[in-house]
Amino acid sequence: MKINIKNLQVTQIEAADGNIDTKSGIREQLDELQQVTIVELNGDVNTNTAPLVQEQILPLAQAQTRMILDMTKVPYMSSAGLRMLLSLYRQILVKGGQIILVGLSEEIRDTMSITGFLEFFQTCDTLDLAFANLNVKAQVTNA
């Protein structure tokens, strides 16, 4: 299991009409949402790897966290992986953040749907769609 974590600096938050309007408080939102964290997983998330994944990404669930979990390269997820996802979701939700799952395989999506886990998560097929759902534009930072 490989885990790659990137912090992206938010450069713009788009209003519903696509514009930045500092009078409506969007500039204040930009100050609050300074980063989007992308966690790329590569490999199976199972009984052996789920604790490692949880250990590395749960600490990232800070107040107002905006996290994109890129699962494009995850071919299999066991029940231990599902439990890890639910734990991460709860941590982020309690702290007023948001998580989006990207690139779920059909098998993982079906499993999450059957078990009811899919109802908890917002999902997107691509990173670009995830950014659009967060209403942000971002760039990679060196931090």
Report on this model:
This protein has 143 residues and is α/β, with parallel strands linked by helices. The chain has a single domain, classed as 2-Layer Sandwich (Transcription Regulator spoIIAA), CATH 3.30.750. The chain is 34% helix and 29% strand. The protein has helices spanning 26-32, 50-57, 79-94, 106-115, 127-134; strands at 2-13, 35-42, 66-73, 98-102, 122-124, 136-140. The protein starts with a strand and ends with a strand.
Keywords:
6 strands, 143 residues, 5 helices, six-stranded mixed sheet, single chain, alpha/beta, Transcription Regulator spoIIAA, globular, 34% helix
The CATH class is identified as Alpha Beta
Summing up helix and strand content along with how strands pair, one would put the structural category as alpha/beta
Give the number of helices. 5
Q: Compute the average pLDDT.
A: 81
How are the strands of the biggest sheet laid out side by side?
5-4-3-2-1-6
Based on CA atoms alone, the radius of gyration comes out at 15 Å
Give the number of DSSP strands: 6
Strand fraction equals 25-35%
Q: Which stretches are low in confidence, meaning pLDDT under 50 for 5 or more residues running?
A: 11-33
Query: What is the CATH superfamily classification?
Result: STAS domain
